[in-house]
């Protein structure tokens, strides 16, 4: 009988210090998944260090099970995973980080749940082990997103997850450039389950998610799955309209009946600046959505592959 194939997708950006240990742990995992055939897809997202040479060596000695593809520039984590998904031939796909923050042994639980009939099995973080600021912002982001998004996006889950072949195939139909894969995999539906795990510290190197990359991901997540910020504009607008009407009416009453002419240069100027600020902020929110429409309307290809080492 044909063995089921599991494809592992590993996005790589400057991970030279992690690749050897990662590979050792993946081989160890492969030996525990005896009843399956494993395929490892490394997507080199234009690393500037010696990651590619290390991957090429691994690929040479394991030509059957290892594929390496290299992007023509740095496209970011979400698109690196997307390229891996496009290439994966497995009956299931497991997406995991290459810095050993996602412990490979958790994959055994993911596979077990998949065999129990679930199509998406996501690994949920029991506790965080990053820096404090990242911890608090991530905590808040996940909760805000899950409150306002049009689909149920589980909190405290990253991209570490198993996707069945049919979910992977469905996800390939989503062509948006500003990708938020966790949202898309929720959007696809099917039976979903969680597995709890303790996220470890990054083994070597530094995070490739700079502040701006993380911010972009957060904005893509929110604008791609919710129009709540636009509703917020109408809400705030209505609030100020009603408030100013009542306030103005109060002034008229006070000056006509009580003869009081209230002076208040400071409060007037403050109100003008405050409302000006709010208006710019609201324009910015609208702009985010318009920018998204613009980018998507260009319909550009998602990524460009420079070269690949594999027998495909
Ligand atoms: N990564 C990538 N391209 C990037 C940034 C990161 O492919 O531009 C990869 C990185 O090599 C890692 C995964 O995405 O395998 C997660 O990135 P990282 O660990 O830097 O993010 P963090 O865990 O700090 O959020
Ligand atoms: Mg990491």
Largest sheet: 8 strands, mixed
* CATH class value of the largest domain: Alpha Beta
Tally of separate domains: 2
User: Which ligands occur here?
Assistant: uridine-5'-diphosphate, magnesium ion
Query: On the 0-100 scale, what is the average pLDDT?
Result: 88
Strand order of the largest sheet: 7-5-6-4-1-2-3-8
Shape: elongated
How much of the residues is beta strand, in percent? 15-25%
Element string (H = helix, E = strand): EHEHEHEHEHEHHEHHHE
Task: Give me the count of strands.
Answer: 8
CATH-defined topology of the largest domain: Spore Coat Polysaccharide Biosynthesis Protein SpsA, Chain A
Q: Which residues sit in consecutive blocks of at least 5 with pLDDT less than 50?
A: none
User: End-to-end span in angstroms?
Assistant: 22 Å
The CATH fourth-level homologous superfamily of the largest domain: Spore Coat Polysaccharide Biosynthesis Protein SpsA, Chain A
Structural overview:
This protein has 2 domains: 4-207 and 302-309, Spore Coat Polysaccharide Biosynthesis Protein SpsA, Chain A, CATH 3.90.550; 228-298. It is 51% helix and 17% strand. The chain is built from 10 helices and 8 strands. The radius of gyration is 25 Å and the shape is elongated. The model has no long low-confidence stretch (mean pLDDT 88). Magnesium ion is lined by residues 97, 99, 101, 202, 207. The site of uridine-5'-diphosphate (UDP) has 17 residues, from β1 and α3.
């Amino acid at each position: 009988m044909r063995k089921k194939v599991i494809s592992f997708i590993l996005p790589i950006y400057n991970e030279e210090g992690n690749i050897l240990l990662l590979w050792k742990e993946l081989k160890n995992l492969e030996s525990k998944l005896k009843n399956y055939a494993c395929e490892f897809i490394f997507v080199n997202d234009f690393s500037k260090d010696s990651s590619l040479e290390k991957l090429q060596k691994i690929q040479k000695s394991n030509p059957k099970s290892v594929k390496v593809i290299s992007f023509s520039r740095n496209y970011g984590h979400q698109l690196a995973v997307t390229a891996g998904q496009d290439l994966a031939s497995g009956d299931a796909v497991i997406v995991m980080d290459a810095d050993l923050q996602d412990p490979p042994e958790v994959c055994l639980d993911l596979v077990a749940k998949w065999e129990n009939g679930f199509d998406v099995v996501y690994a949920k973080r029991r506790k965080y082990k990053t820096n404090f600021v990242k911890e608090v912002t991530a905590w808040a982001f996940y909760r805000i997103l899950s409150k306002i998004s049009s689909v149920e996006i589980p909190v405290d889950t990253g991209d570490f997850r198993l996707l069945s072949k049919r979910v992977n195939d469905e996800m390939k139909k989503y062509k948006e450039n500003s990708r938020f894969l966790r949202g898309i995999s929720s959007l696809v539906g099917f039976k979903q389950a969680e597995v709890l795990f303790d996220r470890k510290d990054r083994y070597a190197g530094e995070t490739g998610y700079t502040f701006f990359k993380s911010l972009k991901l957060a904005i893509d997540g929110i604008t791609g799955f919710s129009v709540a910020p636009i509703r917020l504009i109408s809400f705030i607008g209505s609030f100020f309209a009603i408030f100013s009407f009542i306030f103005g009416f109060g002034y008229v009453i006070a000056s006509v009946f009580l003869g009081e002419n209230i002076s208040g240069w400071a409060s007037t100027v403050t109100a003008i600046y405050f409302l000006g600020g709010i208006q710019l902020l609201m324009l910015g929110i609208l702009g985010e959505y318009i920018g998204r429409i613009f980018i998507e309307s260009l319909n550009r290809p998602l990524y460009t592959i420079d070269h690949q080492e594999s027998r495909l």
